[in-house]
Amino acid sequence: MQGMVAAVLVGLPWPLAAAELREYCPDRPGLGTPACIIDSGHVSIELGGLQWTALRAGADRADNLTVADLLLRLGVGSRTEVQLGFGGFGWWRERLNGHTIGNWQAATGDVSLAVRHNLRNPDGSAVAVAVMPWVSLPVGQPPHGSGTWATGVIVPISFELAPRLSLEFTAQVSAAPDIDEQGRHLAYGLVSGFNVSLHPRVSATLEYQIDRDEDPFGSETRHGLGLSMALMPADDLQIDLGGAVTPGGVSRGFTLAAGVSRRF
Asked: What are the strands, taking DSSP E only, across the chain?
């Protein structure tokens, strides 16, 4: 009887043991998107604790503080995961010609849905490729929310150059909201960078980003540089810190962010 019970238990589709899981690969931090996939039946909860973005255009400046930026990733197959994102809670303040206009405005962010399907090496090793269509739903309030829906496709690619060094690319194209929130326009870009393992549990990523926004009310090409670091005190836990700078163009500025990710 005990042998029959043991045989039945062995045959059940139990989740993989912790030792058999792929190495944890959160989306955070950084400007790009990884090609790796969360293991089937497991969830990654990725929380942006605090993000500060400051943008300048001439003598004008806008500051945005965001907390509780949340991403949930669920593995639904050996090569596929589904994602649910929430833009968090934000506070926005504008300064025109050096003078503050009003107090901080509070608003919530939008909700996003995405599916990431890996085409090669779902653990992100060697040469890894994935495709990720997404859609954003306008449940938030401007200026933190976009005010209308948006959609696009992201294609992350990574190359393992050495045991502790990888080259990463993220190409994306989207139908982005117009400034007046009444229509959409073409936007596209590319992120490229190097990820270096400084220690078995510490990594750093240096990235360059270029984006083209064809908004009919003012098109713009933006360049950015990003540097981020991640610490993994446990196999299923990551703490991160990162920043990015946009040095020129119509608008310039910087972003600082910190967060935590946990796999269950």
From this structure: 43-57, 60-67, 69-75, 80-86, 89-96, 99-108, 111-120, 127-137, 150-162, 165-177, 184-199, 202-213, 220-234, 237-246, 252-263
